[in-house]
Structures are given as C-alpha cells and as structure tokens.
Amino acid sequence: MSVQIKTVDIAPRRQTFGHVARRLGGDKPASRYQEATYDIQATANFHYKPYWEPEFWTYDTRKTAVVMDDWYKPIDPRQYYYATYNIARANMNQAVDRNFSFVEERGLLVKISPEARAALERGLLPLRHLHWGGNMNMTEMCQRGYGTAITAPCIFSAADQLGMAQIISRIGLVLDSQSGTSLDAAKKTWLEDPAWQEVRRLIEDSFVERDWFHLYVAQTLGVNGVLLDFIYKFAEPAFADAGLSVAMLTEFMQDWRAEESRWSDSVVKVVAAESGHNKTLVSQWAAHWIARAVEAVKPLSEALLGDGGKAAIAAGEAARLRAVALGLAI
Amino acid sequence: MTVKKLGLRQRYEHMTRGLDWETTYQKMDDVFPYDSFEGIKIKDWSAWEDPFRLTMDTYWKFQAEKERKLYAVLDAFAQNNGQTNLSDGRYVNVVKLFLTGISPEEYQAHRGFAFTGRHLRGAGARVAAQMQSLDELRHLQTQVHTISHYNKFFDGIGEFPHMHDRVWYLSVPKSFFDDARSAGPFEFMIAIGFAFEYLLTNLLFVPFMSGAAYNGDMSTVTFGFSAQSDESRHMTLGIEVIKFLLEQHPDNLPIVQKWVDKWFWRGHRLLGLVAMMMDYMLPKKVMSWKEAWDIYFVEAGGSLFQDLERYGLKMPKYADIATEEAEHISHQNWAVFYQYTHAAAFHTWMPDKEHLDWLSAKYPNTFDKYYRPRWELWAEMEKEGKRFYNMALPQLCQTCQIPMAYTEPGDPATICFRATQFQGETYHFCSDGCKDIFDGEPEKYVQAWMPVQQIFQGNCGGPTVLDVLAWYNLNAGADNMDYTGSPDEKIWKEWHPDADAARKAV
C-alpha cells in the first residue's frame, strides 16, 4: 500500500517551446538544460556593427575559421545550466573547505621539508597566474563564441579557472601564515624565473588569438591538457613530503579536470568531426599548441624534477593520445 | 618573528587583482585592444574599489543555495498548477511580454559583461563584470524555466527567441541592447551597469516582480526575490563604475555625461513598455506608472544626481520631458498595441469601467481629457462589431524604433515629429531625445534593422499581414488579437467556471 495524494491533473496544451520541439523532432517534454540552452543567442537581424570589431556582427559565425552547420551540435554532456553548475561547484567546494581545515588544523604544510616548500613556492604557487590567464581566455570565448551551447559553459569554465587560482592562493596563504608574502614572491617567479618564462609567453600569446575556436583548442588541449596536467599529475614527486597535502588541497583541480574535459573533449570531437576542413584546422591547432606547451614546460620539468624534461614530454604524449582519441590527425 | 596577517580586504585583493600582471611578451595594448578608443582616461586602475568582495567559493555557495530554493518553488508551482491561482487569465500577457522582451536582454547582458569581464584593463573591474555575466545568465535561464510552465497552457510564449529577432516591437529592446553591445566597454558599463541596472532598475525589474506578487504569480515573484541580491550587487557595480570614471580624469566628464543623457533617454523609451504593462495589463494594480516614476526617478534619481553633482555630472538631458511624459506614455503605448493587436504576440483589451475609474483617479491631469474618451469610443465600436484595427504600417522612430505615436511636449493633442538629414536621406524621430542620440552617432543609427522598412523591402516573409505573422512564427488567431475570444480566455474559463458565471450575473 502506498500513500496517494490526490492532485488535480490538467493536460498541458504543449510540452515545450517551439524551437526546442523542432530540435527534439516533436513536441515532447524537454529537459531544463535543453530549454535553458537551445537557440537562446540571437542569430539574425542585428542592428549595429560593433565599434570595436566592425568587420563582424556581435554574434557572428565568421569569428572562427571552423564552420559548423549548427553550433548547437557541440552540447555539454554534463548538461550544465546555471543552477546545476553552481550546485556542483558548491558541493566540490565543501570538500575543499574540509581539506583545508584538515591540513591547517594539523599544521601539515608548516612541518614540510625546506625542499618541499621550495618546490611548492617555485612550482605550484605561480600557477595561479596561469589559471588567471585561463580565466581571461574562457571569458573571451564566452563573449566571442557562437551559440549558447558552447558559450555558457565557457563562462562556467572562466569561473572555475578563477576559483582554482584562488585555491592556489589559499595554499600560498597557508604556507606564509596568511601574510601574502609567498604570493608576492610567486608573482615575481612568474614574471622573472626562467623556468616559467615560456609558459608565460605561451599564455600571453594566447591572449591575442583572434579566432575563438582556435583559442578554445589552445586553452583546452594545450594549456589544460599539457601545462595544468603537468603540474597536477606529473610534478607530484617534486613536492616530496608535501605531496599528499598538495593532493588533498588540489583535489578540486583533479575533479574539475576529469569533469570539464568530458565537456571540452566532446566539443573538440564534435567540431572536428563536422568536416574535413574542420578536422584539418583543429588538428593543426592542437598539434601546434600541444607541441608549444611541451617545449614551454620543459624548463619547469627540469627545474622541479631534474628530469631533463621527461615529465614534460610524457604530459605532451598523454595530450597527443587524447587528441588522437578525439579524432584529430596528429 | 611575528607575521603580519592580511586584513580581509588585502586578502581579497590577493585573490583577484593580485592574479593579474603586466604582460611583456605581448603588448598590453594588444591584450586589451578595446579600452582606449572611447577616449576614457584611466590614470590608476588600482584606485578601483571592488564593489562586492566575493571569492568564487563564496559565490558558488550563495548562488547554489538560492537556486535550490528557487527550483523547489518552481517544481511546487508546476505540480500544484499554480497558474490556475492567478488573479485573472489576462495577467499571463505580462509574462509573455517579459519572456519575449526582457529575458533575451538578460542574455545580451550576460554576453556583454563577458566582454567587459575580459576587456577592461583593471582586474578588479573584470572580476566584478564576470560575476555579473554569470548572474545575467542565471536570470535568463531561471526566467525561461519559470515561464516554461506557462508556455504549457498559454499562447504567445513558445517562440520567444525567434520572435525576438524579428517581431516589430521586440526590436525596441533588441536594438537597445545591440546598441550597448556594439559600444565600447566603458559605454557598455555606463549603459547597462549604471543607467539600466542602477538608475532605472526599480522601474523595470521591480514593477514586473511586484506585479507578479499582486497577481498570484508565485513562481515569477520567487524568481524576483531570489534575484534581488544579484540585483543589489549589480547596482553597487553600476555606481562604482560611474564614480570611478569621473574620479579618474576630468576629461571623462563630458563623455560620461553624453552617455548618461543617451542611455537615460533610450531607457525611458524602453520603459514605456513597462509603463503600459503596469497601467493596463495587471489585473490587480500595484501602482500607476506615474507614481512609480515619481518615486523611483524623480525622488530617488534626483537624490542620486545630487550626490553625483560633486563630480560635475548633471541630471540627464530631457529628464523634465520624460517626467512630463509619465502622464501620457502608458496610454499612448496601449493605444498603439490595441490598434495593432493583430500583429502582437500578446492579447489586448479595452479597460472596463472599474479600470477606467482607476486610471482617471491616478491620472487626474490627463486621462479624462485625452484618453478616456478614446477608450470609451473604441469600446463602443467593439460593441457595434466595428472593433478598430489600424492596418497601415506605422512610421518608426529611427532611434528607439517605436511607432511615432508620442505627442509634443506641452501639447498632448499633436503628434511629435522630428527629422534629420544625413547623407542625402531623411531620418525620422519621435522626440528631441531620440533625434539628439541619432545626431550624436548617425553612422551607427542608419544601420538599424527597421522592422517596417524591412517588411516593405520584402524581407519579412511577404506582403500581407499573414505572411509577416507566419515569418514571425506567430500563430495567428491564438497568439494575437483581443483576450476576449482567445484560447487563453477559453482555458481560463474552464478552470474558473464559477467566476465566469458570477461575472455574467453582474
């Protein structure tokens, strides 16, 4: 027997919006993701050319060289809209707070060896600036990209990059007893340490990339795929006795990378699969930025691990395999 | 050794602007190519006061909590058929106007704040703009989800993005936001951040949400309450932007003044749709447009500009004309939509006696003299089976794109026409305010996609009204025309047979 509350049933006259029904192939119940995403961005009859980019309309498919019949093909497998995105991140962040409390209460980062501290200061803390660069790029793709299916997750990703820059900053504040000195030092390292300069050059070069999908490939396969993975996956031995604490404090990044790459990989895969033209371009871009990222991170690999750049090469190899699995010719 | 701990403010600065650096491998002017052409001079971005010190973790936490609560209410509203508890079926037309006219602009604001969130050179300002970009996406998406339930039962809602790009009156809000989006980053911040989100927000957001509260629309008003803390953050950003620009350099004042004048007037024209909604479309009235204008613009706006006077900023040009128009604008707009009801995706009606008396009381200087006789005549014509439709396409103002139906300042019996010659063509305007805006940037406004001209040029599906409605995806006979006799009315009466019988008995 079950409890049955009687409710008034009123038959709806339609299930969803017209534009959503056309995409579903009929008037069927649609998900909140679909209703919040499909065809939201304006596509026609714009009024004025932007002063700052008069060669294009505000929303214009010509802002990238890849061509899609429909920019609502590369949808988000996570089906994020604002609510589900924020709830997911708030949940992940509860673990961050627990982990910081755990490490701070036990003084785990206070007790580490000088070698580990030096490696964190040189190898991890400057990464907050690279995340900040990622934030700039994802925001740019949100504003210049085409179609809500891809631009909405871009602003989520921009927020993620900012959030990760702030987690790294919190690690610095734990290391320097909340004085901020380690963050000032990390900025100096980012700006001056030869081990970081090719990484900085790479991200600065990406800031001026005008083709937004080219930028998407550079950021997701090059920066996230090689540079971030190098630090978070390959450089752990450098952090020596702080390794476990760092792994705890950067759990967010591990979870984020696994989750976001489901989206970013699937977008690359769908766009490349659209045509030979797209595949050629995306493959060239991926090959270029992965190779650049490997070269850029080699000095860091040597500086942190003394490995002659082997870990950098391994990170690049993993990124290439990933790209090949997405259907790219590399 | 004692370590000096950071204060909260310094800690926040490390978390945001401390992340930024002066690029050296690429020139800063190439990384930020759009922040100089407007002529705004910034001496020192570090003087920017972060308007709300939110780190991402706090943002996620607050916003997730708000979303959980909001969606619980939306689910309950749908499960319990909350749409049957509205004050009247007519109310849904407010929701239609909101989703077709306002929500797509929330989306435009989302993309626009992503633009300034990337391209303002100051990192503090960028972070604030990015959070607003996220918030604006939230507003679009939650509005779609809120109104999705109404779409299941009522007409005129289901094609909102398609209509937004095409329908004649929706080009009023669309061109407003296209204007802001095609401007530089500083003008965008003044247009949307200051003029729209600070100066005029109480005349846009609040009337819709209060209207929902008064008319039993529990889901929309819950959205409103949920968005309130976002809106107050946006207001703080808007006021910070204008103060910052004015403090940075005296040369910024004339530029900012010109933008404030422009965006005030453009906002005033856009708000005419809200005025009409408040005075005519809400079955249960909150207050009249005139009352709202007096409270939120004359009083609150007045003291705001008193506060800004120390920077040399003056009240927007034509503020006095706008205040005079507050006695007329809702009536003149409703007259337009009544005449063109066959081409609108919401329903119209002539006010009943009780409503007419309310308008007479709220507008003692104008309603009985200029508008009540016309409404009574039109109601009489309806009774005689001669309901008045205007089948001629109206002339549109080149700037605001509203049909030329507004009257001369000081002379409510004469239609106001203004014109400008530019490159051998004549352009027409509804007001001095709109003409001045055109004259300030004629190369921009000649580009406008003018719905009526586009119909005449054959770009809108064909020569007949039905051709154009089909091109709009407007379901003729259901989405348009009077409420009386509409499928909306039919379904409402099915839910409320007793109310209908009671009305007939009277």
Automatic annotation (TrEMBL), chain A:
The organism's place on the tree of life at top rank: Bacteria
InterPro entries in alphabetical order: Ferritin-like_SF (IPR009078), MP_mOase_hydro (IPR012078), Phenol_Hydrox (IPR003430), RNR-like (IPR012348)
UniProt keyword list: Monooxygenase, Oxidoreductase
Keyword Oxidoreductase listed: yes
SUPFAM superfamilies: Ferritin-like (SSF47240)
One Pfam family of this chain: Phenol_Hydrox
Protein name: Phenol hydroxylase P1 protein
Gene source species: Acidocella aquatica
Automatic annotation (TrEMBL), chain B:
Domain YHS: from-to ranges: 408-449
Superkingdom assignment: Bacteria
Gene3D superfamilies hit by this protein: Ribonucleotide Reductase, subunit A
InterPro entries per the UniProt record, alphabetical: Ferritin-like_SF, Phenol_Hydrox, RNR-like, YHS_dom
Keywords: Monooxygenase, Oxidoreductase
Presence of the UniProt keyword Coiled coil in the record: no
Protein name according to UniProt: Phenol 2-monooxygenase
Organism, scientific name: Acidocella aquatica
Lineage per the UniProt record: Bacteria, Pseudomonadati, Pseudomonadota, Alphaproteobacteria, Acetobacterales
